[in-house]
Amino acid sequence: MSHPRQKNKFALFFITTAATLLALYLIFKFEPQLHDLLGARMGGLASRADTIVALVKLIFLALLAYLLVRASNALVFGLVRFRRGFEAPTLVRNIFSIVAFTGLFFLIFTSIFPDANLGALFTTSAIFGVILGLALQDTLGNFFAGISLQADRPFQVGDVITVGVQRHSGVVEEITWRAVKIRTFQNHVVLISNSTAAREPIEVCSRDNLNARLVFFNTLFTDSPAKTIHVVREAVREADNVSQKISPIVRIRNLGDSGVEYEVKYWLDDYAKYNDTDALVRQRIWYAFRRAGLNFAYPTRTLLVERKPKIGAGGEDGGAIVERLAAVDIFAPLSAQETGMLAQAATSHVFAPGETVIRAGDPGSSMFVVHNGRVSVQVSENGRSRTVATLSEGAFFGEMALFTGEPRTANVVALEETEVLEIGHAAMKLVFDTNPDLVESLSHIIAERRQALAASEDLSGGDKDESAGLLSSIKRFFGLS
Ligand code: CMP
């Protein structure tokens, strides 16, 4: 309402209405004088004066009717917008105005000219109607097709539709007298005439419906379908705009020439963003494949000889990993040989930004060292997650569950693309056997982190003897003397 153009419109409306009412008041008040004046000017043609006065009345009353129709149009459709939350289509508003105005005009005309034979008027104009109808064939076709579209309501403004054999696809912006206006995903506007829209098949993905998409991928024949399906479903489920209401479905489409062909079906919260979401789903599949050691299928005729390094992402040599582990403070007491052993046993995993590396409550039998990137350690507080620490290259996490056998105490989420080195229970036991002092320094760190967690959860802090207790429980867990 505060919009200046809206204000101007209101002012213009009120001024015109006031002027029309004043004019009508004057005409009706001074009607006899007007007759006399016109009669005197036109000499003997007094009947002409009558017609002129009646015509002037007709014009002003028609103007008043027009203003009335506009006001009630704004009122009625404003109410519709308020109640239903969306704008009524232009076509419906226009039809309302025309029908209301024609009705009012008919009433005014018959009351001013009671003797006029409207029936005859219509009959004589029938021939012109035919001529006009032929000339306006297309326009009228679009008009009536528009009416039937409105009556049917197969789609509304905001829905995504795909029309006809040319498969024009986009978001419906407007439905007018002549055409349906859609904005394509390349931000072009396509106008589809109403008669075309009524004739052609239309695929409607309405805003208030959970619409699904299919994304395709494949794996080598050697990759397990059960593992693939689980890994992909979990990866897709967490992507933005993938509906939480229905779990994604991953299934085998075909056993193809080059590998097993899959499709993942997922449902979107906002269908208009399906291009971005498809891309994100493919990205998540790529990262999940990389971590789970799954492989996309290559055409079988390609001869690919690949020698995979045992450790290190992207074929990185073990040297960098040994260096990384040697720089981790808790591993400082290890000899070069022991660090090398640990590096041999470590496996590298890459996580996309926003992906969860460790989930609180899960069981865990390995710890991680951040090789590249950054992670945040988060605890959930009243349903909201709170960051208790941010760990970057060289830091480690996941040691609590590994050393105590208890469930994971926090969520650890990648803040950027992050490569972590995973060290399992067996490898750590080997290191402990040769270097028992390590257990002690680890128990201090775990006790510290536990205290930080307890403080963040507003619990009473861990007691001072906790690290001693931990020490013996780690020793027990690892079967150390
Ligand atoms: P774990 O319980 O196995 O899994 C979650 C991990 O988050 C946990 O091991 C620790 O490594 C890490 N963590 C928990 N609290 C903190 C903290 N206060 N500072 C740093 N890391 C922490």
Radius of gyration: 39 Å
SS summary, helix count: 16
Distinct ligands? adenosine-3',5'-cyclic-monophosphate
Low-pLDDT regions: 311-315
Overall mean pLDDT score? 84
**Helix coverage percent of residues?**
40-55%
Query: What structural category arises from helix and sheet content?
Result: alpha+beta
Head-to-tail CA distance between termini:
80 Å
Tally of strands: 16
- The dominant shape is elongated
Strand arrangement in the largest pleated sheet: 4-3-2-1-5
Strand content: 15-25%
The major pleated sheet works out as: 5 strands, antiparallel
What can you see in these coordinates?
- With 481 residues, the protein is α+β, with helices and mostly antiparallel strands.
- The protein contains 16 helices and 16 strands.
- The protein has helices at residues 4-29, 31-41, 46-84, 90-112, 118-124, 126-135, 137-152, 194-199, 225-237, 274-292, 318-326, 336-345, 399-404, 425-434, 437-456, 466-477, and strands at residues 160-163, 168-175, 179-184, 189-193, 202-205, 212-219, 249-255, 260-267, 347-351, 356-358, 366-372, 374-381, 384-392, 396-397, 411-414, 418-424.
- The protein has a five-stranded antiparallel beta sheet. Strands 9-16-11-14 form a four-stranded antiparallel beta sheet, with helices on both faces.
- A hairpin with a 4-residue loop joins strand 7 and strand 8 (260-267).
- Helix 1 (4-29) runs antiparallel to helix 3, helix 2 packs across helix 3 (46-84) and helix 3 runs antiparallel to helix 4 (90-112).
- It is elongated and about 130 Å long.
- The N and C termini lie far apart (80 Å).
- The relative contact order is 0.05.
- Mean pLDDT is 84; it is low at 311-315.
- The structure holds adenosine-3',5'-cyclic-monophosphate (CMP).
- Residues 358, 364, 377, 388-389, 397-401, 408-410, 412, 449, 452-453 line the site of adenosine-3',5'-cyclic-monophosphate.
